[in-house]
Design a protein that fits this description.
By secondary structure, this protein is an alpha+beta fold. It has one domain: tt1808, chain A, CATH 3.90.1570.10. 24% of the residues lie in helices and 24% in strands. The chain contains 4 helices and 11 strands; from the N terminus they run βαββαβββββαβαββ. The longest helix is centred in the first third of the chain and has 21 residues. The chain is globular.
């Protein structure tokens, strides 16, 4: 992730200029280039298929929008664009911006957020953990398919790691899965997934 801002932007300025461009996020008023790669999109796409199957089999009134922004805090000029987001469709009637633009401001609308780790691993493992917990999002998955995260977060030796963060009170309880281990989700108990299932070939 590369910071490209020369001037700071408000949330609304970001929406007006970059809301339709999947390449950018906003963090504290600074525009950031997400720099997606083919392998990154491969992992995101394969994972979305598995999540979709689990949602359908569970008969949940949820869906994954093609594009969506999260405004974590109204007073901070930050706009997150998760790799995957699962929304609770019935609750969207309470979202003040949804009818005009795909922007989520209420954590209750979100069931799951997934970030596929790239060079910005610090943000995925630290700041977003705090932001998403503060919003009250029940589950946050960190998919570090190349083992890029710091040793503090994924251990040593560094290896591909799938972290499921489940909200317990105001903080996430984290469970890590490695190659060959079945991923378990409290939100999607019928999920059938191992890290190998979503790796690029």
């Amino acid at each position: 992730m590369t910071y490209v801002s020369t001037t700071t932007l408000s949330f609304d300025e970001f929406i007006a200029q970059y809301g339709d461009d999947d390449r950018y996020e906003l963090a504290d008023g600074e525009l950031t280039d997400m720099e997606p790669t083919g392998p990154h999109e491969t992992v995101s796409g394969k994972l979305a298929v598995h999540i979709g199957i689990a949602i359908t089999n569970g008969k949940h009134p949820w869906f994954m929008p093609r594009t969506c922004l999260i405004q974590p805090l109204a007073e901070v000029a930050t706009a997150r664009r998760p790799d995957i987001i699962v929304l609770d469709e019935p609750f969207l009637v309470h979202e003040p911006r949804w009818q005009q633009e795909p922007v989520i401001t209420l954590g209750r609308s979100i069931k799951l957020v997934v970030e596929v780790v790239s060079r910005n691993w610090e943000t995925d493992y630290a700041r977003k953990v705090e932001e998403y917990a503060l919003l009250g999002i029940p589950e946050y998955w960190i998919v570090d398919y190349r083992g890029l995260g710091g040793i503090r977060f994924i251990g040593k030796p560094k290896q591909p790691t799938f972290t499921v963060c489940q909200l317990a009170g105001e903080e996430y309880r984290q469970q890590q899965y490695r190659l060959g281990e079945a991923v378990s989700s409290g939100l999607l108990p019928n999920l059938q997934l191992c890290l190998e299932d979503i790796l690029p070939r």
